[in-house]
């Protein structure tokens, strides 16, 4: 067996050497192409998904480890989200995005959407393209994965959003929209033509036999126009939904990967309003704007009809349409500035209202209803002032439109009389001109919506311009042994403020249990934020094993660390989801084991629905101690090699705390614990006392007490209480 493994390793090394030789030869010839061996099994499917997601240069090499791990690492680096789905019957008839699944024979395949509709895949063995149908569907596993395109991990502009929107749509979507708008416009051309025929031929001849055919033709044209208008609306609704789904997924993925310091600049309500503005943009564009603009563009064909029927009226028609466009643009510019002010004021108001209702219990306890109402009215009055006093051009818009209509009618009559235009030609011209001017006037109705696009984009700008934590070049961390080195670390929150940590050094061995104590404001919680990559030090470095924190994918690093911070919260949902939120692949057995280690398994088992008992965000229905233990279970479910606890057991009694400590001792992981209770840190391998951003004292509990220094002075009150309790017992 040993010799077989050695032979396999030697063969892999020879293949790798041969590949490198070909690459070197290609580089010498100026080709510079990477020679990747043809994948055996899953390689082609993974590559197809990555290419569809816009990651064509990703290297998947079967010789360099597990393909699935490589694939997932590439997805994480590029912030590409995916979810598990069930392939129900007839799902393949409408193509949406790329899907990864298995044949029942075991081969992994990528299901690619067709240009017009449907799905196909390339058979792993033959390479033949196979289109999905009822028979082929029977050969597929019912479980699959759906992937969502992501935005690049860099500051973005509006072009990136447009590219994302275009990638969300198939070629067929664009063709359907253009064809539907064109056909509606062509049907409209029939009305001026038939009017000319009626007044030029039918009425002068007095023939009644021709009335029914002409009436039937006009009715047919109207019905056809309505049907294609409905088709256009359905296609636009589909386009809106597709863009909204993919764009919102990409935006949320980006938000989740922004650094923590970004969220300090905005309230929750304000940030929510900014994020949802992109969905509002999609709705505006697809529901009204795209349709109206395309209809207006295609209505330019009516100018050709005007040229045919009343050539002398073409110039005044163009002058009138130009005047309408100028007024349209002026109104648009004024409306943009107006909407920008309204949306900014509304965003601030939403943020304030969200904060008020989030802390309504504290406000009532403090009796601050009157003061907070005054604060709300101060913010709301800006909205009222803006809405009550719009710019003068917007208030006069209806009057100006009426004047334009009156002036254009007079100009048309003047040129009609001057050039002696015939009745039938004028009627045909009037129909064509009415259609094109009606399309432009419809844009006037859209100005309030069009004007919101720029302000909404301005609201989104902070989210777009902030740079995510993860870069495509960041090193992925899959495992940590538990060693931590903090070297010459200096950090402050403000550029000109005092250093919270100044030239700080700390070395933690794998498996060591370290307690961190100190007075309030000494930098304990800040140290944890730095260790987790939530803050960036001004100087110095933090190293986990051989990984420099500044050069790794911080998300992958945090997966190796179990964290329970001071202000940890539960999510609305069941207990199982709350425990496994950091480890979605965990089973109920894993959750029970984590709950056992956290000392809450028996209490969960006694609840009506066990692990699936529902709890609220505020922890309604459970005590503070139970909430803390569920949060500890969440930190333990992934079996991390490092644990960071910041006052994680402050609500627990000494017996429960001791039980959890004993359970954690058996795990053998590295533990850094911030605590004020002596019972929490008494059994630490080492206790560090921080003072003014530096380590003032260091040693075991007994050593620090015997030293009678800063730690002893801070602990005297608790020590005296313990002695009094012992005497009382």
From TrEMBL:
<keyword id="KW-0813">Transport</keyword>
<feature type="transmembrane region" description="Helical">
    <location>
        <begin position="313"/>
        <end position="332"/>
    </location>
</feature>
<dbReference type="Pfam" id="PF00005">
    <property type="entry name" value="ABC_tran"/>
</dbReference>
<dbReference type="InterPro" id="IPR003593">
    <property type="entry name" value="AAA+_ATPase"/>
</dbReference>
<feature type="transmembrane region" description="Helical">
    <location>
        <begin position="429"/>
        <end position="451"/>
    </location>
</feature>
<dbReference type="InterPro" id="IPR022515">
    <property type="entry name" value="NHPM_micro_ABC2"/>
</dbReference>
<feature type="domain" description="ABC transmembrane type-1">
    <location>
        <begin position="177"/>
        <end position="452"/>
    </location>
</feature>
<keyword id="KW-1133">Transmembrane helix</keyword>
<protein>
    <submittedName>
        <fullName>NHLP bacteriocin export ABC transporter permease/ATPase subunit</fullName>
    </submittedName>
</protein>
<keyword id="KW-0472">Membrane</keyword>
<dbReference type="InterPro" id="IPR039421">
    <property type="entry name" value="Type_1_exporter"/>
</dbReference>
<dbReference type="GO" id="GO:0034040">
    <property type="term" value="F:ATPase-coupled lipid transmembrane transporter activity"/>
</dbReference>
<dbReference type="GO" id="GO:0005886">
    <property type="term" value="C:plasma membrane"/>
</dbReference>
<feature type="domain" description="ABC transporter">
    <location>
        <begin position="484"/>
        <end position="717"/>
    </location>
</feature>
<keyword id="KW-0067">ATP-binding</keyword>
<dbReference type="GO" id="GO:0140359">
    <property type="term" value="F:ABC-type transporter activity"/>
</dbReference>
<keyword id="KW-1003">Cell membrane</keyword>
<dbReference type="InterPro" id="IPR017871">
    <property type="entry name" value="ABC_transporter-like_CS"/>
</dbReference>
<feature type="transmembrane region" description="Helical">
    <location>
        <begin position="211"/>
        <end position="230"/>
    </location>
</feature>
<feature type="transmembrane region" description="Helical">
    <location>
        <begin position="399"/>
        <end position="417"/>
    </location>
</feature>
<keyword id="KW-0812">Transmembrane</keyword>
<keyword id="KW-0547">Nucleotide-binding</keyword>
<feature type="transmembrane region" description="Helical">
    <location>
        <begin position="284"/>
        <end position="307"/>
    </location>
</feature>
<dbReference type="InterPro" id="IPR003439">
    <property type="entry name" value="ABC_transporter-like_ATP-bd"/>
</dbReference>
<dbReference type="InterPro" id="IPR011527">
    <property type="entry name" value="ABC1_TM_dom"/>
</dbReference>
<feature type="transmembrane region" description="Helical">
    <location>
        <begin position="174"/>
        <end position="191"/>
    </location>
</feature>
<dbReference type="Pfam" id="PF00664">
    <property type="entry name" value="ABC_membrane"/>
</dbReference>
<dbReference type="GO" id="GO:0005524">
    <property type="term" value="F:ATP binding"/>
</dbReference>
<dbReference type="InterPro" id="IPR036640">
    <property type="entry name" value="ABC1_TM_sf"/>
</dbReference>
<dbReference type="InterPro" id="IPR027417">
    <property type="entry name" value="P-loop_NTPase"/>
</dbReference>
<dbReference type="GO" id="GO:0016887">
    <property type="term" value="F:ATP hydrolysis activity"/>
</dbReference>
């Amino acid at each position: 067996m040993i010799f077989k493994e050695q032979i396999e390793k030697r063969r892999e090394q020879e293949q790798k050497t041969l590949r490198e030789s070909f690459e070197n030869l290609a580089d010498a010839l100026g080709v510079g192409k990477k020679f990747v061996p043809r994948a055996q099994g899953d390689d082609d499917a993974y590559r197809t998904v990555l290419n569809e997601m816009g990651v064509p240069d990703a290297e998947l090499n079967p010789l360099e480890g597990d393909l699935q791990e490589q694939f997932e690492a590439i997805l994480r680096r590029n912030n590409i989200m995916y979810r598990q789905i069930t392939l129900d019957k007839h799902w393949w008839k409408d193509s949406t995005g790329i899907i990864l699944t298995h044949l029942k024979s075991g081969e992994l395949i990528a299901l690619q959407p067709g240009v017009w509709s449907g799905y196909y895949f390339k058979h792993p063995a033959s390479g033949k393209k196979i289109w999905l149908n009822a028979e082929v569907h029977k050969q597929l596993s019912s479980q699959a994965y759906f992937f969502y395109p992501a935005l690049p991990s860099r500051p973005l502009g509006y072009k990136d959003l447009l590219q994302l929107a275009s990638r969300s749509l198939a070629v067929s979507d664009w063709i359907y929209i253009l064809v539907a708008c064109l056909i509606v416009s062509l049907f409209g051309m029939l009305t001026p033509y038939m009017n000319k025929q009626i007044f030029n031929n039918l009425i002068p001849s007095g023939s009644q036999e021709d009335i029914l055919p002409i009436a039937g033709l006009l009715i047919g044209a109207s019905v056809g126009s309505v049907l294609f208008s409905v088709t256009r609306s359905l296609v636009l609704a589909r386009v809106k939904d597709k863009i909204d789904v993919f764009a919102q997924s990409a935006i949320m993925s980006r938000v989740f990967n922004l650094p923590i310091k970004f969220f300090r600049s905005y309230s929750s309500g304000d940030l929510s309003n900014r994020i949802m503005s992109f969905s509002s943009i999609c709705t505006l564009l697809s529901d009204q704007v795209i349709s109206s603009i395309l209809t207006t563009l295609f209505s330019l064909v009516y100018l050709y009809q005007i040229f045919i029927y009343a050539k002398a009226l073409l110039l005044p028609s163009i002058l009138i349409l130009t005047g309408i466009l100028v007024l349209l643009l002026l109104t648009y510019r004024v409306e943009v500035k107006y909407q920008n002010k309204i949306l900014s004021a509304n965003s601030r108001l939403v943020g304030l209202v969200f904060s008020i209702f989030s802390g309504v219990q504290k406000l009532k306890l403090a009796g601050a209803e009157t003061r907070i109402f005054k604060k709300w009215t101060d913010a709301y009055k800006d909205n009222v002032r803006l809405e009550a006093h719009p710019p003068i051009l917007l208030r006069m818009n209806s009057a100006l439109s009426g004047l334009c209509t009156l002036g254009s009618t007079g100009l048309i009559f003047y040129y009609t009389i001057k050039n002696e235009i015939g009745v039938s030609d004028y009627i045909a011209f009037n129909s064509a001109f009415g259609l094109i001017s009606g399309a432009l006037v419809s844009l006037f109705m859209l100005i309030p919506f069009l004007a919101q696009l720029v302000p909404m984009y301005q609201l989104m700008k902070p989210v777009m311009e902030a740079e995510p934590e993860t870069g495509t070049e960041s090193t992925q961390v899959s495992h940590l042994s538990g060693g931590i080195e903090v070297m010459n670390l200096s950090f402050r929150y403000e550029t000109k403020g005092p250093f919270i940590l100044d030239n700080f050094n700390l070395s933690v061995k794998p498996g060591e249990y370290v307690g961190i104590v100190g007075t309030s404001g000494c930098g304990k919680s800040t140290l944890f934020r730095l260790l987790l990559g939530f803050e960036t030090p001004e100087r110095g470095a933090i190293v986990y094993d051989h990984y420099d924190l500044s050069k790794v994918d911080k998300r992958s690093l945090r997966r190796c660390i179990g964290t329970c911070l001071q202000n940890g919260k539960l999510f609305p949902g069941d207990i199982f989801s709350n425990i496994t939120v950091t480890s979605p692949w965990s089973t109920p057995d894993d959750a029970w084991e984590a709950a056992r280690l956290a000392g809450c398994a028996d209490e969960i088992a006694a609840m009506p629905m066990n692990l699936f008992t529902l709890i609220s965000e505020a922890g309604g229905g459970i005590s503070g101690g139970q909430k803390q233990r569920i949060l500890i279970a969440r930190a333990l479910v992934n079996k991390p090699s490092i644990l960071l606890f910041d006052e994680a057991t402050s609500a627990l009694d000494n017996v429960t705390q001791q039980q959890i400590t004993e359970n954690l001792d058996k795990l053998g992981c590295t533990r850094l614990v911030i605590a004020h209770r002596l019972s929490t840190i008494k059994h630490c391998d080492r206790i560090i006392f921080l003072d003014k951003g530096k380590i003032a004292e260091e040693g075991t509990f007994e050593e620090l007490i015997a030293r009678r220094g800063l730690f002893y002075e801070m602990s005297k009150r608790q020590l005296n209480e313990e002695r009094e309790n012992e005497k009382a017992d």
